Amino acid sequence: MGIPEEYQKNYKYFLGSKIDLSFRPLIPRQETEYWVSLILKEIKKGSKCLDLFSGSGCIGVSVLKNIENTFCDFGEIDKNLLKQIQINLEGFEKERYNIIETDVFSNIKERYDFILANPPYVALERIGEVGEDVLEYEPHLALFSGNKGMDCIIRLIKEAPNFLNEKGVLVIEHDESQKDDIEKLIKRNTYSKYEFCKDHFNEYRFVKIYG
Predict the structure, then answer these.
(1) In this predicted model, what pLDDT tens digit does every residue of 109-154 receive, in sequence order?
(2) Could you tell me which residues are beta bridge partners of residue 98?
(3) Distance between alpha carbon 152 and the CA centroid of its chain, in Å?
C-alpha cells in the first residue's frame, strides 16, 4: 500500500477534464462520474447550479465545460480546497462561477436550478470496511459524516428547499444502505417528487429530488 496513483500524478480525468489534485481533495470516483454524466443531459443552457461539498470542483467544472451559458457556484468548507477549486477553474470566464467557503448552506445566498452534492456519507460505524489507502491519504472530512454517515445528508434535505428555484432539482450521491432513511427524510419535507437511481454497478447511488 502506498500513496494513491492519482495523488502521485496530481491529477485525474473526470468526464474529459483534467482535474488537478495537488491539494489532495477526495479523488473523483467512477460512481460520481457516472451520475454526473446523466445529470448533464438534464441541465439546460443558462441554468444556475451549485456544486456543494465541491472538493476538487470536478462536478461543477463538468457543468461549465459541457453546457453553454451555465453559471456555477462552488461551495466547500476546507480552505485549502477553495484554492484547489480555483486551480481547476483556470480557463473559465470569471463571470461564470463563484467559490464560496461554506458549511453546507451557511454562506449560500442564492437560489439554483440544480444543486449537485457529493457529501461525506461514509458511516463511522463502518470505518473498518474502508480501504487502508483511503483512510491514510484521503480527507476524512470528505468521507465521514456521523455514526450513520447521514449528518450532512440530513442538513441538505432539510435546508435545500430554501435554495432551490421553482422546479429546481437537488441531486445527492449516497450509499445504497441509506436509501430507506433518505426516503423517509424526503417525505417529511416539502418536495414535489423524487427518484432513486442506480449506478453502473447496479447499486442505488444517487437520488434526484424535485422542489
Answers:
(1) 999 999 999 999 988 888 877 788 878 888 887 888 888 899 999 9
(2) 73
(3) 11
